[in-house]
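Consider what follows.

. . .
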Amino acid sequence: MMSEELVGYFGFGSLVNKDTLRTSYVDIITASLRGYSRHWQARSTKIFGNNISLLSIHEDTECTIKGMIVFDLLTNLPLVDEREERYSRHSLKREQLEVSAGVELPEELYVYIANEVDNNHDDGALLQSYLDAVMQGFNNEYGDEGVKHFVDTTKGFDRDVILDRESPLYPRSVQLTNEEINLFDDELKRVGVIGF
């Protein structure tokens, strides 16, 4: 396949979990993005009377975040844009990414950054089913330390959580093992998520 037929996009949240991907992607590999950290950003949608927060990233020269690069067909990019409807696609430079030696990246590299909202409430609640999908992705790819890395490089965990694990509201929800449940909940308690 010609390299110009491929694009790469860096996943730092739910895109880390292969089970949430909805295109016929070509490959997905572990990678790190230099100069950014994650944060929770409220959005205008309300569930159970709460504003909901989503993950985004911001520049932070002291931080490097782990994630995944999805190698996908250029023709699939509109589908990814649709999936990431609350995000804007931003170009990345090759030198911003750390990958294993010998990995050849596509020419076009992107990351999706959450759109700002008019009233960016700081108190937007976390959605447990979304957290489960994100944390499972980090656990699958990086193990327990990956889950801890995700939590430690994400600002703003000290907020309420909507406990929807049994009846997931997140459209790409995942099934968890008891071991995953214990690990994820313990990490969220450690960083002060309200409701655990």
